[in-house]
Amino acid sequence: MRTRTRGWSEAAALLVALGLSAPAVAQNEQFIPMPSYRQGPYAAGGTSIYGGFIDYLNLLNMRDGGLNGVKLTYEECETEYKPDRGVECYERLKGKGPTGASVFNFLSTGITYAVIGKATQDKIPLLTMAYGRTDASDGRVFPYVFPMLTNYWSLNTDIVRFIGQREGGMDKLKGKKIVHLYLGVAYGKEPNPIFLKQAEKYGFEAKLVEVPAPGTEQQAQWLEIRQYKPDWVILTGFGVMTPAALKGAARVGYPMDHIVGNFWSGSEEDTEPVGDAAKGYISAALNPPGKDIKVIQEIERVVYGAGKGNMVNKARIGSVFYNRGVLTGIMTVEGIRVAQGKFGKKPLTGEQVRWGLEHIKIDDARLAQLGAAGFIQPMTVTCADHEAGGAVKFQQWDGTKWKLITDWIQADKALVRPMVEESATKYAKENNITPRDCSKEG
Amino acid sequence: MAFFVEVLVSGLLAGFMYSLVALGFVLIYKASGVFNFAQGAMVFAAAVTYAGLVSLGWSAWVAFAGSLLAMVVFALATERFVLRPLVNQPQISLFMATIGLTFVLEGLSQSVWGSEVRGLDLGIPDSPLELKGILVSKFDLVAAGTAAVLVSVLAFFFQKTRVGRALRAVADDHQAALSVGIPLERIWALVWAAAGAVALVAGLLWGSRLGVQFALTQVAFKALPVLILGGFTSIAGAIVGGLMIGASEKVAEVYLGPLIGGGIENWFPYVLALLFLLVRPDGLFGEKRIERV
Amino acid sequence: MIYREAGQFRTTYVADQRIFPITQDRVAMAMLLIVAFVVVPAAASNYVLTALLLPMLVLAIAALGLNILTGYAGQFSLGTAAFMSVGAFAAYNFQLRVPGIPLLVTFVLAGLVAAGVGLVFGLPSLRIKGFYLAVATLAAQFFVDWLFTKVAWFSNDSPSGTITAQPMVIAGLPIDSPARRYLLVLSIAAVLALAAKNLSRTATGRAWMAVRDMDVAAEVIGIPILRTKLVAFGISSFYCGVSGALWAFAYLGTVEPQAFDLQRSFQILFMVIIGGLGTVMGAFLGSAFMLLFPLFLNWVLHLIVRTELRPGLLSQLELVFFGALIIVFLVVEPRGLARLWQITKEKLRLWPFPH
Fold first, then answer.
1. What is the rounded distance in angstroms from the CA atom of residue B282 to the CA atom of residue B273?
2. pLDDT at B128 over 80
3. Which parts of C123-177 fold into alpha helices (H)?
4. Planar angle of CA B75, B77, B83, nearest 5 degrees
5. What is the structure's pLDDT at A441?
6. What is the pTM assigned to this prediction?
7. Angstroms from C146 CA to nearest CA on chain B
8. Which of A34, B120, C238, C271 has a Cα at 20 to 30 A from A358?
9. Is residue A104 within 8 Å of residue A126, measured between CB atoms?
10. Rounded to whole angstroms, how far apart are CA atoms C340 and C137?
11. Which residues pair with C174 in a beta bridge?
12. Which of B91, B100, B266 sits opposite C327 (nearest CB)?
């Protein structure tokens, strides 16, 4: 009998605690969901990226008192990079905050695919910066998805252009041999169609070499590559596949400065385990690394100065992935800011933020205001073009850090855009979606 | 022809790396009849402890000793809290318990040492060596040598020493071993500590190759076809199985792969092992199971 | 006191052979069904329906399948996710290429395709046993993974190999709201659970259990081993195939081959073991435990630990808790949650008397 009453009073206490712990509905807050992964095989990257994102939000809150007076709040939810956990986080976080979630960024192509339908229905935009569905660059079919700054096809043309530059001109590519070494998952296979198309256009010999996931074993592939003797190797990897690839290359003696990775295979986490052997390895840089950028310096001064930084390992501030997180923060907040310009300086709904994202215009003047000169490429998002960028810089590993070696190299949009539209139209047909008519939209 | 030999040699050497991981499985299965799903997590935990200690400033040998100590403590804790309460339970419950162990170990190592990717420098260059026109990796040779040494030591231990005999008795029948007075708890602790040591060596070599990161837990899956081929209870089988799997995997990927689209490395060793099993259901060197009706 | 059978007399064979011979059990089951079918869709939030209950039920179906294979027939399999994958892709392709095919027919056909694949990969079980068989079924897992990523036909030439499931329509009624999807999956799960329970009471089920316990003896008394094992593989794969199709259509809406990777196979195996091998209830309990407990743990820890510890530490500690809990459960009751429930019921029959 004693146990019974104790049980009831415990339950009552818990209920009261729950009631008290529910946050008071704040008036002037913009909620940004943070579906992070700090667990699992990609935890190292996730920790840095989301760390940078959170630090940028805190910078604005601490230095400027929020965005035009509206405080930016966030809540993390562990997805472990898995689609089902991602969906659970989406459902859990989409209604939080006074106006619901502003914009979701999962940093995972798999989760994005799973959530696109729901997000479109719930009218919450997805910022899939530099990953996700490539054909979502066509904003007429995917009004709520924003693969901003670069998609995988534009990136592949950037890399080929860079190689052309190194060879002395695009015409010098004729007759050369280029290998695409990719991880055997959806993400790795995406660039293949445009890679083969460019081979046709420029006359180089293209070879596709697949590494089965997770990519820990690559001896066979590198022996094959050594046999084939290509002039260049393009690397599309993620996680453990990249250091394994670099080690494989070192083992067969393939020159590092003829391997060009994409921007998910070009971070400190990829080259540090390989050490000196990776010297000379080149990769695409969506954002420059290092602390030479004003906004990064601001974060260190204001946020870490007050001891509120998110990164436990402070050496990672200024790393490739950390800066990418800051970049994510900048683009997210920029979308909200543009939306505030139209809808007022108050907490906004997902639909309103979507409008903001679609009208982002970043020019040199804005870059100076953000403290991001040289950090982001100038770009203008439109109704039909949700990619809006397409350019990347290139960086090289010198044994201890990444150094930029080029300026912005533009993508071959004339080649990429028709393929994007074709794929988007196919998706629209399969799913009974009527593409928007951009001439009618504001 | 030279290329074929190159691929073959590279595969054989890769096989040694697989055997190192398989050895841990064999040790534990041989002595306690438990299929230790946590072996991959042990490899990761050992490697991350070593890398973490080194990053704190400890010298290589001291860090090695420290990691070894950590693995011994883990073995003792496992024996006390997991194995002892589950004595004589069906194999599948013990297997499930090792899965719980996996989660505990993964979570613990990451909460203590963080989830950063760390390099592991063993001082062995990964540069190629040319022997008669064939490319061989220095690193692989060192790994092969290490595996060979470990195997000899373990084989000698199991066959020739009293403790080894006790281990084999325990593997056969827990209760019978108890009834003749073999101290079950100490034997298990010893075996798990040995498996932990093997995991440490494997973790160092694999971590040096891939960087110390969470993906190290996945190398255990590479060892499973080795176990099928070689038999779950044979140490020699771990080596022979490793060599066969490594070689056939690489040769198939290079020669068979392009015919069917490439990327067959993941399933080919399993299919091969499967075909082998149809002929010898207990593996090449595994103990033939005698079933009494 | 409440669970006594005193006064319940069964006077017909039919009454004696009921799944729930005791009236209280029948009442409880009926109430459970009413709650599940009527109360939950009306009262539960969309979050609970789409993120908690749907995956739990879909994976419970797969767990039922694996339970048939491993729990009843004693064949250890790690290829569960491969068969789910086959079901998902088969359902997608049937919907895509056969115009106007009814949805439920698609699911059945997808299950049959998966059953066929299961039969093929079940052939080695005739020679191989135990853990060796488990590792051998991994061949199925990796092969199917590779096949769907490699052969573009399966994913309708999508460059990433990911498919987006078509919207569901049954007899003109679109099944798009969370409540409707939940009811669809719940109905299918209920039907399949009943089928599994009844299967275990037929001659086939008894043959499976004979094979599980001692297959040499079973063969000696005349049970056709080949047919029994293959039927187990086939039916189990049918369940997994339907589960995979539901995963794609009713739950996530998309499928990439990595969704059905080795981790998924292990997850379903854990569900079956923790839930209780050889029980239908175990599949549901195990599914609820494996899926919902980590989320519950996450929610509770977030509530208790208000100050932000080192970021990421919380999710790692959850992992430690979860693993420790699995071990504790196994020590307390190695035969799983279903057995714990059974013991509870037996104690209830005596309560409040001690014996």
1. 11
2. no
3. 130-150
4. 80
5. 65
6. 0.87
7. 7
8. A34
9. yes
10. 30
11. C169
12. B100
Residue B37, min C-alpha distance to chain C (Å): 11
**Tens of pLDDT, residues B164-202:** 888 878 877 777 888 998 888 888 888 899 899 999 999
Chain C residues touching B227 at Cβ < 8 A: 135
Q: Which pLDDT does position A1 carry in this prediction?
A: 43
Q: Fill in the DSSP letter of residue A195.
A: H
One-letter amino acid for residue A374 of the chain: G
Distance, CA of B272 to CA of B280 (rounded, Å): 12
Cβ atoms B235, A203 nearer than 8 A: no
Q: Which candidate in A15, A88, A314 is best for mutational testing of the C interface (most C CBs within 10 A)? A: A88
Annotated domain spans of chain B = 19-218
Which of A36, A209, A217 to mutate against chain B (most B CBs within 10 Å)? A217
The confidence score (pLDDT) of residue A11 equals 45
Taking only the tens place, the pLDDT of each residue in B197-255 is 999 999 998 888 888 888 888 888 888 888 888 888 888 888 889 999 999 888 888 88
Q: Domains in chain A, please, with CATH?
A: 29-150+290-380 (3.40.50.2300), 153-285+395-417 (3.40.50.2300)
Give the separation between CA B150 and CA A364, rounded to whole angstroms.
Answer: 63
B35 contact residues in C (CB cutoff 8 A): 131
| d(C-alpha A111, C-alpha A104), whole Å | 11
Considering only residues C135 and B238, tell me which one the structure prediction assigns the higher pLDDT: B238
What is the mean predicted confidence (pLDDT) over B66-82? 91
Task: Inform me whether the pLDDT recorded for C150 exceeds 90.
Answer: no
Tell me which residue in A211, A243, A252 faces B211 most closely, judged by beta carbons: A243
pLDDT band of C311, cuts 50, 70, 90: low
Separation between Cα atoms, residue B47 and residue B67, nearest integer Å: 8
Interface of A with C in 232-261 (CB under 8 A): none
Q: A325: helix, coil or strand?
A: helix
Q: Subunits that touch chain B (at least 3 Cβ pairs < 8 angstroms)?
A: A, C
Among A199-203, A428-432, C47-51, the range scoring the smallest mean pLDDT is A428-432
Q: What percent of chain A has pLDDT over 90?
A: 30
Both tokens of C191, joined, read 């039907």
* B4: CB partners within 8 A, 6+ apart: B251
| Mutate which: B9, B209, B226, vs A, most A CBs within 10 A | B209
Cβ contact (<8 Å) for A83 and C295?
no
Residues of chain C with CATH 1.10.3470: 44-350
Architecture label for domain C44-350:
Orthogonal Bundle (1.10)
